[in-house]
Structure prediction request, 316 residues.
Amino acid sequence: MATRARDGGHGRPPCPAWPFDRCAASPLRRRTGQATSGKDAELSAAVDLLALAQLAGDLARAAGDHLLGYKEQQGSESDLAASAETKSSRTDLVTAADRASEQLIVDRLRELRPDDAILAEERGGLPGASGLTWVIDPLDGTTNFLYDFPAFAVSIACEDAEGSIVGVVHDPLRAETFRAARGLGAWLGNRRLVIGPGPQTSEALIGTGFAYGAERRALQASLLLRVLPSVRDIRRAGAAALDLCWVAAGRLDAFYEGGLQPWDHAAGALVVREAGGTVDFVDGLLPAVATIVAGPASLCSDLRRLLSAAGGSDGA
Prediction:
């Protein structure tokens, strides 16, 4: 089993406790071509990141408001279901709400950040020249949205060549916005999120999720049968971006799932890392796809070993 870590090892900023809104509005924001050095350069770069986080948060909340408005307009679950189409399988759904949410975000980014690339779940990739890419899941938890199950979110990340530099996950039903910026911490509203050492595996509440295809689901079910007796319990909410943020907020002790797409984890994984947790991508548990494992470092290590034994891997 091969384990790959991403986006780790970044230093802390000179002012780690600043609220996001205050930093994003700072007059010290770096301008294109403005020379800075030393502490001023570090501060300016930090404010740039927080300005991107502010933009992502504004877009995620606007898209979340749009999703709630769409539900009100449709009136019933049957009306919502009438707008649904299938994608990769009969259980992989997309609705007009997904597309409208994505359009809102993409249009605004094209207006405000025309040189940035975009990777969005429904429309795919749009090129850019800035070296930054926005990774968008306009509605994480589409099936939950259709069934009025209270777990869906808007997820927006901004990446450079090394991975996510900004991540925002907005839960419109709870009016909760999780935000993180590389090296600047993770936040729920104005509360900084910090992941502790975590419990023993036998006392851990573990989140997971399942793929859309029947064959991969069967393999994931076999893993679950081996994991479940060894932990406190399992939760399956059906929205990976929220699951990752709930790890950062202490609502889950750890999370694992195989076969996620970049837009499923780009924002939430950064929230976990910036809260002090570990995020690994483990190869070999399921054919042709990696399995994300997120949580406190020691618990993730134990969970990887447990999953490796359940999947028949070599445990490396």
About this structure: The chain has two domains: 20-193, 195-311. The domain at 195-311 is CATH 3.40.190.80 (D-Maltodextrin-Binding Protein; domain 2). The longest helix spans residues 38-74.
